[in-house]
Amino acid sequence: MIDFIDYDNPATTSIYANMTLKGQIDCYGDMEVIGSLFGDVDCARYLRVSGYVEGMVISRDLMIDTNGTIKGKLDIGCDCEIRGIMDGEINAENVVVSGTIKGNVRARSNVRLMDGGRVIGDVVCGSLTADKGGVIEGNLFFDYSYLNT
């Protein structure tokens, strides 16, 4: 997963630590949330959350940093990495978990459960890679239908 924000791009949006926003945000470039956001987010590229987001999140790629929390639902086109806390459902191509997810996960391809990663909910995926110390507290289902598309 790419872990960078293109700060030189004028389409990059940053919500800083001393900011709280309420309402819907449509972002056409990368986005970084260090503050708090209450509302839905539609981000065309990469979204990194080091603060707090409450609402529906749509993005191409997403990373919840170790200090970040999202409460809501995720619809991620490609890669989703959870280092912090996710409270809600996830739908993505690939999901990497080293933090905590409280909700169901649907990965069209792969779920990677790292040491210390925890999913409290059901996981549906095409494949699972789990390190020692990764935990799923729920059901695990394999869905291979994505191979036929």
| Strand order within the widest beta sheet | 7-8-10-13-11-9
E-strand count: 17
Distance between the termini: 23 Å
Instruction: Figure out the total of helices.
Output: 0
Beta percentage is over 45%
Question: What is the overall shape?
Answer: globular
Q: Mean pLDDT score, rounded?
A: 93
Given as residue ranges, the uncertain stretches (5+ residues, pLDDT < 50) are none
Please provide the ordered H/E string of secondary-structure elements: EEEEEEEEEEEEEEEEE
Structural class designation: mainly beta
Helix content: under 10%
From the alpha carbons, calculate the radius of gyration and give it in angstroms: 15 Å
Oligomeric grouping of the chains:
single chain
Biggest β-sheet strands, sense, barrel: 6 strands, parallel, barrel
Number of domains: 1
Architecture overview:
- This protein has 149 residues and is mainly beta.
- The chain has one domain.
- 0% of the residues lie in helices and 60% in strands.
- The chain is built from no helices and 17 strands.
- A six-stranded parallel β-barrel has the order 7-8-10-13-11-9.
- The radius of gyration is 15 Å and the shape is globular.
Write a concise synopsis of the structure shown.
This protein has 149 residues and is mainly β.
List its salient traits:
mainly beta; 17 strands
SSE map:
Layout: E1 13-15, E2 20-22, E3 25-27, E4 31-33, E5 36-38, E6 41-49, E7 52-64, E8 69-76, E9 79-82, E10 85-92, E11 94-97, E12 100-102, E13 105-113, E14 118-120, E15 123-130, E16 135-136, E17 140-142
Parallel strand pairs: 1-4, 2-5, 3-6, 4-6, 5-7, 6-7, 7-8, 7-9, 8-10, 9-11, 10-12, 10-13, 11-13, 12-14, 13-15, 14-16, 15-17
